[in-house]
């Protein structure tokens, strides 16, 4: 007999976690269903022991996951049996992590588990995906919610890729600037310093300051690098604290130039996530519970958690989100209109599109200024170095004449 940890739901709406003994998981599932329980998950105690060990489920590539969902939707619409579809999908994928996860889902389904339970038990798939599939199973419209999730994936991935690709050019300019400064300090300054030392000439104050400053940086270069590395690991360790994360989040969203963009990006991410959950038929409280684990901002996640508790007690979502202080007033107004008209999911989708477009326009405007500014900074550094080191040569040339 093996022991299993079961998460169950009763007809009264209570959620229970209890340990049961059975010869197999399939036998236990049949017994619990006959007893009238709704089964959320069943885990073997032996498996749970290994879950706390060093090995963790691998991460599935977002692109591979999108391709999987597109193919899964096509096979589901064609009427192919679920297990056969999972066999085909596991066979054709090029990702070892995804193949292993699909095989785990297939085995769970074969033993009698629901598809959403099987996806959730592997630990590889996003919570929003598992919640979407669960809603599709309950409503009997799995194809519809899978189609909505695929559309959500495409829009989210496209927006993120566009956002990241827009930052590549400024990053390249910053790298060029760092390489230029390193070249000046490591090679150009020592060469001119040696030249003027051999000539034994009186140097202008600007040249003396530049040589002295650059030589000090070169002398302590290793310590400076080690200091930055130490600060990086210090901040990384401090970031594990929830208080530190929230403090950084509040600071980040108030930064000039970029704070507003990051805020709009986070609100669009939340609105898109909640919209696809509601469109799939997930109740608002459960949708908020899933959304808080799907957003990337800890501050936003905390705000959603507080709103979820208040919505569960009967308050309106717009009122709860307004009290959090995170959301812009226009976002709250649009959500309030969605509640009033009964078209919450459509309004959330419109809100996500509005902020995504706003972020794209603002990002393009700001990045149009970054290029000229960075080039101007590089030009100033080059001009400063040239003036500082060629000034003594010009002075000596004038003295010869």
Annotation field: number of helices: 18
Largest sheet: 3 strands, antiparallel
Total domains: 3
Strand content: 5-15%
> Quick one: overall form?
elongated
Q: Which structural class matches the secondary elements?
A: mainly alpha
| Portion of residues within helices | over 70%
Strand order within the widest sheet? 2-1-3
Taken in chain order, the helices and strands follow as: EEHEHHHHHHHHHHHHHHHHH
End-to-end separation in angstroms reads 103 Å
The mean pLDDT is: 80
| Global Rg | 30 Å
* Total DSSP E strands: 3
Give start-end ranges of low-pLDDT stretches: 48-56
Key words describing this protein structure:
Ubiquitin-like (UB roll); Receptor-associated Protein; 18 helices; 76% helix; 6% strand
Written overview of the protein:
The chain has 401 residues and is mainly alpha-helical. Mean pLDDT is 80; it is low at 48-56. It has three domains: 2-51, Roll (Ubiquitin-like (UB roll)), CATH 3.10.20; 62-165, Type II secretion system (T2SS), domain F (Receptor-associated Protein); 166-283 and 325-401, no CATH class. A three-stranded antiparallel beta sheet has the order 2-1-3. Helix 8 packs antiparallel against helix 13 and helix 14 runs antiparallel to helix 15 (298-312). The chain has 18 helices and three strands. The protein has helices spanning 25-34, 45-51, 62-77, 82-92, 96-110, 115-122, 127-139, 142-165, 168-199, 205-219, 221-238, 242-252, 259-279, 284-294, 298-312, 317-324, 329-341, 344-400, and strands at 2-9, 15-22, 38-44.
